[in-house]
């Protein structure tokens, strides 16, 4: 992770006029179809959604200029005392042995800036060189003595980087550096800290799916870091902590599976009541200095990632860092990229003095990206499904609490403008020009105008565009949204969906409709006058997301319920069964074993078929059978020694699976064309 020590420079707040630098030439691409579906609700926009990191080595941490810039960007959460410094920092005497502590960066100064910004704080307690007693004293100082009301407290930072898996960057003075030892201390920290203030929320560090050292099991450990930490400390925590530096600008597609796998681990290992545990992305940066850390490509990736993470239910995404310092200097899309992972310039220079950043506090492009996201998605809004048919253009949408709607469009092409046509489902925009917010390559502000229409416009290259719409008619007297749905009786092809009743509006509610999300399109799969419905004809082994809508006697419809996601299984009884187990994992590949059992008539010669759930998965090699792959489809044919499977007999085969994103395992297998039970 970037941990650059800042030099001191004079603090100058620049007031910059909007400046747009158009490309020398922009082709116009084929029209892009954008679909926005107001019936397909996702997560609500949280109060703490847009955040960033402060660091005690930044001498401007406590300045009014910094707080005012962060407030203008819409920052709602500020994390302290700064990455790996958290595990060497002692709050009471404001020291970090082995590191640099800048003046005017103590906790009380940080809190003054938090209040001026209008954000909530998140504090990382020292696990590496600290104690539970020290952390509890910090809670007492913050919330009892000072009355700051600090709600969110992390226990350590990236503590899996303590050398347990062979690489060490995180300070850890404990003789035992295992996940079990970390988890035992999380329990002790939580007990001590909540004894001072029972209202606080405690967070534990996890590894991020498909990011090192996720999936690794060290010698002597009972499982992976996440499995051990959740199993031991799950009952004592309120949220888990992920960090993500994807290193490329096109990894947003990984997010839904990343969050799904994290929730799956929480549900499996954290014990009863684990649904209360939230997910926080307390460090995020594109991590790609070669592709534009602080220029427009990085900004576009930042906006896309923030919107996607929040839409998937992460309660805060925190940029690394407010200021970080100059790094590898390159030219990216016509502008100097200083390799700086900060939002604001530190005014630092390369070691030879040959290149210097702009004046201190000059916003870099990602600053405007986060400002755009904060204006697009406000606390109280709810994300809804949106999609495009052009890979260079990304769409996000929210339904506003006041009945309006906002659409964020991202054009990542460096040389092509795209005309877009927007189709709205479940929402009718008002006539007249909407409010339009735009940020283009090289611009030093977001421009605002009232131009064009609700259903179309042209997106400049390397641009962010937000369209804010009012409904065509006032939304009054409609039913309230149904309560959070739940699933029960889930089989391979059916599930029973239940929900709390909606409140009636001006007219009685006459029925409820259940809508299945299929990308950005919803399909109504049933309706009922009650508050429970069994739906069928579902695809086995598949993740399904549904919303429930109430309809009144005049045809008026409610907003959709919160989403419910559940996964169908495979047949409970079948003439064959399959068990897939991981034998070992190295965070980019694994050794898998597949046990095939025949429960039907004797078989002489067999073929097993399955598909990789994601494009970033592939077959490395296989043994004890003949393995082939075509696209995502894998076919395994018996070899000469194991083709005979009498009733009750089993055959075990093995393979190496490769992955470069979250590793969702195959779950549906067919043997000689018959779907097997997956055990």
TrEMBL record:
Keywords, comma-separated and alphabetical: Carbohydrate metabolism, Glycosidase, Hydrolase, Polysaccharide degradation, Signal
Domain of life: Bacteria
GO MF term list: hydrolase activity, hydrolyzing O-glycosyl compounds; polysaccharide binding
Claim: rRNA-binding is one of the keywords in the record: no
InterPro entries found in the cross-reference section: CBD2 (IPR001919), CBM2/CBM3_carb-bd_dom_sf (IPR008965), CBM2_carb-bd_dom_sf (IPR012291), FN3_dom (IPR003961), FN3_sf (IPR036116), GH (IPR017853), Glyco_hydro_b (IPR013780), Ig-like_fold (IPR013783)
Pfam families: CBM_2, fn3
BP GO terms, sorted: polysaccharide catabolic process
Signal peptide: 1-26
Keyword Transport carried by entry: no
Domain CBM2: 569-679
Segments forming domain Fibronectin type-III: 481-573
Protein name (Swiss-Prot/TrEMBL): Alpha-L-arabinofuranosidase
